[in-house]
Amino acid sequence: MYSRAYKWIVSLPPLLWVGIFLLLPYALMFVHSLWLVRDGMIVHEWNLQNYGKLFQNPVYLEVLFRTMRIAAGVTLLSLLLGYPLAYYMSFHAGVRKDLLYQLVIVPLWVSYLVRGYAWKTILGSEGVLNGFLQYIHVTKEPVGFFLYSPFAVVLMLTHIYTPFVFLPLYASLEHIPRNLVEASHDLGASSRATFLRVILPLSIPGLLAGATFAFVLTLGDFLAPLLVGGPSSIMIANIVQSLFGTAYDWPLGAAISVCILLLTISLLFLTERLEKRWSFR
Amino acid sequence: MTLPSSSQPKAAAIAKSGDVLLEVRKIAKSFGAREVLKHISLEIAPGEFLTLLGESGSGKTTLLRLIAGFEQPGSGEIWMSGERLDTLPAYKRRVNTVFQNYALFPHLTVEENVSYGLQVSGAAKTEIPVRVKEALQMVKMQEFAMSRPAKLSGGQQQRIALARALVNRPKLLLLDEPLSALDANLRKQMQGELKSLQRELGITFLFVTHDQDEAMALSDRIALLKDGGLEQVASPREIYAHPATSYTAEFIGQTNLLRTIVENGVAECGSLRWSTTQPLGDVLFSLRPEAIHLSPDGPAPVDAVRFRAMVRQQIFSGSSEHLELELAGQLLRARIPAHGPLSGEQEFWFSPADAVAVRE
Amino acid sequence: MVLPMSRASQNVSRSLLLGIYALLVFAFLYLPIVVLILYSFNRDGVGGFPPKELTFAWYRLLFNDAAIWDSVLNSLLVAAGAVVLSLTLGLLAALALDRATFPGKSVFRRLVLLPLILPGIITGLSLLMFAVFAGLQLSLATVFLGHGTALISVATTELFAGLQKIDRAQEEASLDLGATPWQTFWRVTLPNLKLSLIAAGLLIFTLSMDEIAVTFFLIGRDNTLPLEIWARLRRGITPEINAISTLIFAVSVILILIWYQIRTRTIGKEAQELLERP
Predict the structure, then answer these.
(1) What pTM was computed for the model?
(2) What is the ipTM of this complex?
(3) Chain C residues within 8 A of B87 when measuring between CB atoms
């Protein structure tokens, strides 16, 4: 039904754009990662030293592992908060489902910066939380570790990503035909058994999608540590950012970015395969 | 409202409590302002094939779901084998359901689907494969044990749904319009298989359908529902020959409804008159199309009611003719053996015994 | 043996527990926002508990802050441009994915959708390197480029879902009646996509207004709103920021609620799921 001309017209511009502004930049980044910095200048000497530097430097490694821990923590907490919420809304909320859904997506689209800033004001030593705790006489002095700590970073990012985890999960749960739940009960399974045997397995695609999203984006986040983290909460993306800033070493920064890019792509492939395996259509 | 079931001896023996498997007592159910079931009472005998027949909205599916445990009655009780059923959660009832859209678990194989009920009830590990195999053989689906439901056709899925329910040896099997999604030929075939399966196993079947042909073909008894109430509960032959109401007469099979005035033992409808035992007053009679005969075709009994009518329409259907007759402005439907084209005015007759008095 | 509690009441207590948990999650999600709004009216600014005095002083200060409003204008310009660019290319990409086959199509699809899940820093840095390579000066133009590229994926996803919903037979009928493919596109396809386009546009606009990570590396002398706020945050907290944040929140809420109303009228459950997957 669609002529070749039609197909060319619709395909060419986006292909060109993707080629120039996505593929080419990634390629450039890869090329940069193979160069060096000497005396404050970028030198076009081909080598793999930057990758070596990343994996041999104990500081970088520590930051990398910390970042992974934070990402895992955020993902886990978001799931712990998001799954029961999605389950409640899908199976127990009845007519209020729609309204509640809107209530969930509203914080999702409120500015990242705004929400991060809000946590900053809450968790600070002069902040709302400390003020509140002192007001009700639970503590006498401000608690230090609320802000400028990995705790704060995890808290803030969980707050950001819980709705992101919720969305595909809720979609998956809504997709489960209710007569399957009835059939399970009919065959003698209690609500708990039904959840474990029917609902949970069928919600895995949504779960994987949300978890991947939260994990990957946390991994590459550099704003949260700057807002609410402290020197002890530096994540891998902060290192990259400073390498492109004051610590001027673009090739090294590019190398780390390439690693993050490759990690993201591999994770995406992995979850895509897993999702296929767990999606039964 | 309970209507007396006046049919086969098996059903009539329900009077003794030992012969009742399921008892529905004055069940009422409303959804919001809509009254879906209006104080229904019904008894099901062990081993019988009872069909709940009715249009959409008649309450038949709701009643089924109440028995299965997916809804709670507004008032009334359900008892099974002398014990209260409606207070039990669905997963504790010895009742299994074959769902309209099969509701097979897409993430499990056929084998895992069928063994599901046995797994959750903690049946012995060694026993499960044996019973699953047995169930699959019953529905002739052994080779598909390792397949996934998505790969099966509608008819095949239906059999698996049946096996999954039956493997648990329920006391009562509920079937919610299980054949409605199948094409005509497959449907006829499955009807036959269901019937013989039920006879073989002796399990009590409660079948829901809106298709009266299906109900008549399969059931030991039919319970006809209308707007949440029971119109009539009787065997197919009984319900066809002696419909209790005009609704029943029109829903099951076709009929002509004759409004008569009865006076001194004579029913009068226009130019038609016949003797009847009905009391004085307005009485509605049901007369099946096949009860109207063409006079030239053969001899009529002495008390036959004769009349002349115009043949308005004639539709040939192989072994019979469907005629539309006009008599003094009233339209009558007749079915006579294949005849060859008819035209104009012809003489017809029917036997008064075939005119059944029905309530409005 | 009959159980004392029917399934109905078991379900109720389970519902109740889950409902309470859900409430707590909602409280967690909304707490920071509530605090923010509350304290933007607080005389003593941020911090301390409870807020002492309510005042509009910070809002008055905000309205007189020229730098902030300059950055708002910049953000609006970039966002408007990003909407146009992303929708155009996103529409074409969606059409291509829906109707054309060519070698490497699945790679293309993955590439287009990649910026959705890729951390903004990667997108931002790669485009920075491109800008250097192409000799571009960092400015609002490069920011515009960055937003457009990153947000094509949003447009593509949303419009692809909308395309799936269109009955193919409509386009066939149009051709059958003598319309050229070009006419069919304008008279049949596009009108059917109207609501999808509006929904996608709203979304892209909102995301562009809030974008930081990509913008961070592509910004020149003129700041966008988020970066202006960011710069001030580095200097120290003033309650003025609470005020602007509250305003941003209010506008976002309105936009998103409109977006939601539009979407639920067009896209069905299946397509909604497509969007939900990053």
Answers:
(1) 0.82
(2) 0.87
(3) 2-3, 6
